[in-house]
Automatic annotation (TrEMBL):
It comes from Paenibacillus whitsoniae. Pfam families: NaeI. Keywords: Endonuclease, Hydrolase, Nuclease. Gene3D superfamilies: DNA mismatch repair MutH/Restriction endonuclease, type II, Winged helix-like DNA-binding domain superfamily/Winged helix DNA-binding domain. One of its GO terms (molecular function) is DNA binding. This is Restriction endonuclease. GO terms for biological process: DNA restriction-modification system. Residues 36-259 form the Type II restriction enzyme NaeI domain. InterPro entries: DNA_rep_MutH/T2_RE_sf, NaeI, Restrct_endonuc-II-like, WH-like_DNA-bd_sf.
Length: 279
């Protein structure tokens, strides 16, 4: 049997006889705002493992191998909690009563354990640098896996298997990590400041019009009460320089008046405010 015939046979099986897979896909697609919820889950999972408040880190690339692996564990548990999915007896979760394994990667493929053979996997990947993610479902079998195994006997999905993934989100928008988009010289300048207050001041001074979420603020401040550093930057340090800091929690009405998009509750953005300079 040629590769084309094999793919055709697998497609026939998936499309015509796998009622459990259809139920899982229908259930997940039926979750209101599924793509947006999943994007937020991924953003929060990554930020929690990066742990910028205590480490000053802001990038997955700054993590060691064990920490990178742990992102997948956080994604699994947070996804089950946020989407109200019960724990499975064999696999990670029950989706509409069906055992489903949840697999996450920041790479280009997923590693599938032996015990997932015959079960459905919810496959999720994220690229923080590009602010995108994917999520899809696949029934695992030897036909959809590469023959090579790692030291834990896990195998990756082959080209034929990729063709069989039913994508729930093919090009999702991952809430951005603005620090990853900054010029390296700007990052260097911000982190060269000694105190958390000075770093926050420099961040908003150097990056007008850029939206920073709470995790980014914590990574720069490296303090528990990072929001106080923002308030002090806004009310004491930067106001005399004609710089205004807007908060999604309090200032969306002002942003709308200026014809700008509103921010999320934990987001902040600075502007060189001409009105402040003339008053």
């Amino acid at each position: 049997m040629g590769e084309g015939d094999q793919v055709q046979q697998l497609n026939f099986f998936t499309e015509n006889t796998d009622q459990e897979l259809d139920k899982v896909i229908t259930f997940l697609k039926g979750i209101p705002n599924f793509e947006r919820k999943l994007g937020r889950i991924l953003r929060k999972s990554i930020d929690e493992v990066v742990n910028g408040r205590y480490t000053g880190r802001y990038s997955i690339e700054q993590l060691d191998k064990t920490e990178k692996t742990y992102i997948g564990t956080r994604v699994q548990h947070m996804l089950q909690h946020e989407l109200d999915l019960p724990y499975g007896e064999v696999m990670d979760a029950l989706v509409d009563g069906i055992e489903v394994d949840i697999k996450f990667t920041i790479g280009k493929n997923w590693t599938i354990p032996l015990e997932a053979d015959g079960h459905i996997c919810l496959l999720i990947s994220a690229d923080d640098n590009k602010s995108i993610f994917q999520a899809g479902c696949l029934r695992i079998s030897s036909e959809v896996l590469n023959s090579g195994k790692n030291r834990d006997s896990k195998r990756t999905i082959n080209a034929e298997g990729r063709e069989l993934i039913t994508w729930l989100v093919s090009n999702g928008s991952l809430p951005g990590n603005a620090l990853l988009k900054l010029d390296p010289e700007v990052i260097k300048k911000v982190y060269s400041k000694k105190s958390g207050q000075e770093r926050i001041n420099e961040l908003f001074r150097s990056c007008p019009g850029i939206v920073f979420n709470g995790a980014a603020i914590e990574s720069v401040a490296m303090q528990k009460d990072s929001s106080k550093r923002v308030r002090d930057a806004r009310n004491i340090w930067l106001k005399p320089e004609g710089i205004s800091i807007y908060s999604g929690k309090y200032d969306n009405d002002k942003l709308l008046e200026k014809g700008l998009s509103p921010l999320e509750k934990d987001e902040f953005m600075s502007f060189y405010d001409l009105e402040s300079e003339t008053n």
